[in-house]
């Protein structure tokens, strides 16, 4: 095996043996509040969630590597399209990842699909933590059934305090073990103004973000990134970042309604300047 292939495989193994949720660097004010509420980390799974029954969240997918298990979530939005967070796919080579569908147990897939291209927002992480949204195009069409369906995109902005459901295979707690059974949790939308007040010292809440919060001990954790936030039967958010895990701060999501035009233009193939390919690792045998 050529040295280049060995190095590529080693890099692939390293990046596919981690689960994702972006962590913010908290200010002294947030750290003080976190220390005061440290006991909130004792919740579980999508922290504070419960097991989902088979067929629940039929749009939910698991993004996995070839050599390990789940590391990010995502949603089916069309027969050949998956939506997720940009930080879940940025820099990876599509053939090395697989998409698991139709199951509430990530290690018991009903079907496995593979990507032929990724697309990330060209302003991803510019500024920091902004535009964290990406699309995966599959090399085959998803077969829909009672366990596998697409979810409609948000058609209107969320109202303050609206109920929303988060699902995912995230860790049981910060640094804790993962769960193999999909977790579900009902949260409340927090207005952008109220969320910005919480994170005012960090300056990382962008206009394209929405937030949820109910109480300490409920929220997202590592492995939930890219996963769906649903309200009114529509996909309204994608897990982006937070102060891990469920310690009394809002979680932030990419707003699907805000990025709806970008999503549709990328899927249509008519906009060549509104996205960037994330597959920037060379394929074996390709020329530099």
From TrEMBL:
GO terms for molecular function: serine-type endopeptidase activity. Belongs to the peptidase S1 family. One of its GO terms (cellular component) is extracellular region. Residues 46-268 form the Peptidase S1 domain. Residues 1-20 form the signal peptide. It comes from Bactrocera dorsalis (Oriental fruit fly). GO terms for biological process: protein processing. Its main location: secreted. InterPro entries: Peptidase_S1, Peptidase_S1_PA, Peptidase_S1_PA_chymotrypsin, Peptidase_S1A, Trypsin_dom, TRYPSIN_HIS, TRYPSIN_SER. This is Chymotrypsin-1. The lineage of its organism: Eukaryota, Metazoa, Ecdysozoa, Arthropoda, Hexapoda. Keywords: Disulfide bond, Hydrolase, Protease, Secreted, Serine protease, Signal, Zymogen. SMART domains: Tryp_SPc. Transmembrane segments: none annotated. CDD domains: Tryp_SPc (cd00190). It is found in: Secreted.
């Amino acid at each position: 095996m050529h040295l280049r292939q060995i190095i590529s495989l080693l890099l692939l193994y390293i990046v596919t043996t981690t689960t994702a949720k972006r962590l913010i660097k908290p200010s002294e004010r947030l750290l003080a509040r976190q220390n005061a509420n440290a006991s909130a980390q004792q919740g579980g799974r999508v922290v504070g969630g419960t097991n989902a029954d088979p067929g629940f969240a039929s749009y939910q997918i698991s993004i996995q590597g070839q050599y390990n298990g789940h590391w990010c979530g995502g949603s089916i939005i069309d027969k050949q399209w998956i939506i997720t967070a940009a930080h879940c796919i940025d820099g990876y080579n599509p053939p090395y990842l697989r998409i698991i569908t139709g199951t509430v147990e990530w290690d018991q897939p009903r079907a496995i699909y593979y990507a032929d291209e990724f697309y990330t927002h060209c302003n991803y992480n510019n500024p920091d933590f902004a535009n964290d949204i990406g699309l995966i195009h599959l090399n085959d069409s998803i077969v829909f059934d009672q366990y596998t369906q697409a979810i409609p995109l948000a058609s209107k902005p969320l109202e303050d305090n609206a109920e929303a459901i988060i699902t995912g295979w995230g860790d049981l707690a910060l640094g804790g073990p993962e769960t193999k059974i999909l977790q579900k949790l009902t949260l409340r939308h927090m207005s952008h103004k109220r969320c910005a007040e919480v994170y005012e010292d960090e300056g990382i809440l962008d206009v394209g973000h929405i937030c949820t919060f109910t109480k300490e001990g409920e929220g997202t954790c590592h492995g939930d990134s890219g996963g769906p936030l649903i309200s009114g039967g529509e996909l309204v958010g994608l897990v982006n970042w937070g102060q891990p895990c469920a310690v009394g701060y809002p979680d932030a999501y990419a707003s699907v309604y805000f990025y709806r035009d970008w999503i549709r233009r990328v899927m249509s193939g008519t906009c060549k300047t509104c996205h960037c390919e994330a597959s920037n690792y060379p394929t074996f045998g390709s020329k530099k």
